[in-house]
């Protein structure tokens, strides 16, 4: 019974994150005369910037060692995972709705969702996830601002 309640709570938090990203996108889309892609890129810029900064802060890049990569999952690590899960779910849906024949992007988002779900199921991989997402997203703000 406890496992079901825990899974239900995790699902609710992930759904809340997805709604946050979708709501942010809709706020930009409704409040401006910009294209759907422009609005999506603003949301992507926000996620990439925050995920990079928070991930680097949680990673402890200055004190990184092989033992620190397996530290116990903290609330901050968990929040970063859920924050990112909601974003990748939103962006996957956006890519499917505004299909641009980009199988690479679809695979990228599905892979990210599977990986985050994997990390959420672990107890001692918070620092590894934080370092991974920070390093993966570090160039994202640059990609979005070039457009």
TrEMBL record:
Main localization is membrane
Per its UniProt record, what Pfam families does this chain match?
A: TRAM_LAG1_CLN8
**Membrane-spanning regions, if any?**
12-30, 76-99
- The segment(s) forming the TLC domain are 33-147
Q: Where in the cell is it found?
A: Membrane
Q: How does it sit in the membrane?
A: Multi-pass membrane protein
Keywords annotated in UniProt: Membrane, Transmembrane, Transmembrane helix
Name of the featured protein: TLC domain-containing protein
Source species: Iphiclides podalirius (scarce swallowtail)
